[in-house]
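Can't paste images in this forum, so I'm doing it all in text. The chain is below; anyone willing to post the predicted structure tokens underneath?
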Amino acid sequence: QKDAILPNCIFIKNGPAFQKVKFDDILWVQSDGNYSIVYTVSKKFALRISLVKVIERMPRKTFIRIHKRFIVQASKIDKIDTFDKEIYVSGNPIPLGRTYKEELLARLTKI
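Text version of the structure:
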């Protein structure tokens, strides 16, 4: 959101309150049925919102969709295994969908 007053974070509904979460602390977001689960460095949040709606609220420069059920923070990617079709974020394997592989590789600086 271009007119957001705090452009480096998002407020996530957590019970009756809204918890401030810095984008930099978010590792990945996973779709789980009608919910999206936001994984951060220290905890996870279950949101009753679709992954598509979550993606709309995340900065495109920072987050990338890598699977129909996952978006990740690009700076947190440790390794991309194109043979096993997985990426690793903070040591956690996450599936890499073939539909999203080309965009991921195109947006990376490689040698």
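Residues 65 and 71 are 4 Å apart (CA to CA). Residues 98-107 form the longest helix (10 residues).
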